[in-house]
């Protein structure tokens, strides 16, 4: 998919293209691993933003929440929320559609982008949703 997007010759910064690749991978992986079924990916350009939509057969809408420090997964939506210009999830007749948009420049760049990526890999205790003791 990213090869096709690059082939369109859109005025997207390299960081924005890398974000599209990373976030697409996260959403597609989530769709397939949570539903054990194929998903549909649609990519569109409105002249200002690239939009990627992933539709799957699951009906439960995701929510970005805290990160469990002991979990080996669960950071995908954190990355989507942090790196996308905008994102959302909505019901679809076949299940649900999760989408994100990336503008011509990355939503976050430089040190701020690095911080987001590091926090996704090694979250701090602030990112953990409290549980009952």
TrEMBL record:
It comes from the Bacteria. InterPro entries: Anti-sigma-factor_SerPK, HATPase_C_sf, HATPase_dom. GO terms for molecular function: protein serine/threonine kinase activity. Coiled coil: none annotated. The keyword Manganese does not apply. Residues 11-100 form the Histidine kinase/HSP90-like ATPase domain. Keywords: Kinase, Serine/threonine-protein kinase, Transferase. This is Histidine kinase/HSP90-like ATPase domain-containing protein. It comes from Kitasatospora cheerisanensis KCTC 2395.
């Amino acid at each position: 998919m990213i090869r096709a997007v690059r082939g369109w010759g859109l005025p997207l910064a390299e960081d924005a293209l890398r974000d599209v690749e990373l976030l697409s991978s996260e959403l597609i992986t989530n769709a397939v691993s949570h539903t054990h079924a194929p998903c549909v990916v649609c990519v569109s350009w409105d002249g200002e933003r690239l939009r990627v939509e992933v539709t799957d057969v699951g009906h439960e809408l995701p929510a970005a929440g805290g990160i469990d420090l002991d979990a080996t997964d669960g950071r995908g939506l954190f990355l989507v929320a942090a790196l996308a210009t905008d994102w959302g999830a909505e019901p679809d007749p076949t299940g649900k559609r999760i989408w994100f948009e990336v503008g011509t420049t990355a939503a976050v760049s430089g040190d701020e982008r690095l911080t987001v990526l590091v926090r996704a890999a090694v979250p701090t205790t602030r990112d953990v949703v409290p549980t009952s003791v």
